[in-house]
Amino acid sequence: MAGKDSREFREIYERLLVFYGPRGWWPVTREGGSRPEYCGGPVNHSQRLEVALGALLTQNTSWRGAGKALENLISRKLMNLQSLLEIPETELASLIRPSGYFNQKARKIKTFIKFLAERYGQSWQRFFSEPADRMRELLLELNGIGPETADSIVLYAAGQASFVIDNYTKRLFYRLGHSPLGIPYESLKRRFEKALPAESALYGEYHALIVTHCKERCTSRKPACTGCPLSDLCARRGVVSGKD
DNA sequence: GCCCAGGCTTAAA
DNA sequence: TTTAAGCATGGG
């Protein structure tokens, strides 16, 4: 089974990479820049923090709104532990309004920031050097961080191999005929991690390509199957349907 | 107006 | 243990 997944998951990856090209995930704001751009992920700790907050802010929300919320924080020089620790939760909520669920998300950000400060103090950057499994475990204990957000932080903020699953991944691999409709998160994650070598660059690119493909082509309502780079591998090619 | 968007928590069945 | 409701803005 792992052998079959291994061949097929790699083939899907190669096809998507050729078709769309490298995605440059996760978007980060350059030093002196005003908004997040796709240029290859974080290279400093302020950017790692930005990626982690972005992962919280984009929960069940389009990236557009999350990006705008990040811009607001960055333009006010708040993308550092001390400022985020000091800002009142209500003020934080008003700044991240465009990302939706702003009250809940403000609380989640506060929870995460307090965790870093209380556990690591001044050397909070050490958090990103925790082993991937340990980091994931710590994140999952925090209110507001579930499996996808935890994996996004481990993979894109810390640069460690942990495969990210999301609804796009579930939908695409269901349509391709590789997994049942309501497959549990951990189950699909394990399949990817067994099928592929544990390389953060590979995991990061793969997830980014899946998101691109599902946003641009394999959409919820009317998938654009004509010209799809995966159509000859797909169990549901040409099947027009409402959902799924 | 309805549907969807790079989820998660809490409470009810 | 599975299912539903709630969270909320913004674009198509």
UniProtKB/TrEMBL annotation:
Needed co-factor(s): [4Fe-4S] cluster
KW Metal-binding (keyword) present: yes
HhH-GPD domain segment(s): 57-216
Pfam families linked: EndIII_4Fe-2S, HhH-GPD
Keywords: 4Fe-4S, DNA damage, DNA repair, Glycosidase, Hydrolase, Iron, Iron-sulfur, Metal-binding
Gene Ontology molecular function: any one: 4 iron, 4 sulfur cluster binding
GO biological process: base-excision repair
Family note: Belongs to the Nth/MutY family.
Record-linked PANTHER family: A/G-SPECIFIC ADENINE GLYCOSYLASE/ENDONUCLEASE III, DNA REPAIR GLYCOSYLASE MJ1434-RELATED
The protein's name in its UniProt record: HhH-GPD domain-containing protein
Organism of this sequence: Candidatus Glassbacteria bacterium RIFCSPLOWO2_12_FULL_58_11
Organism ancestry: Bacteria, Candidatus Glassiibacteriota
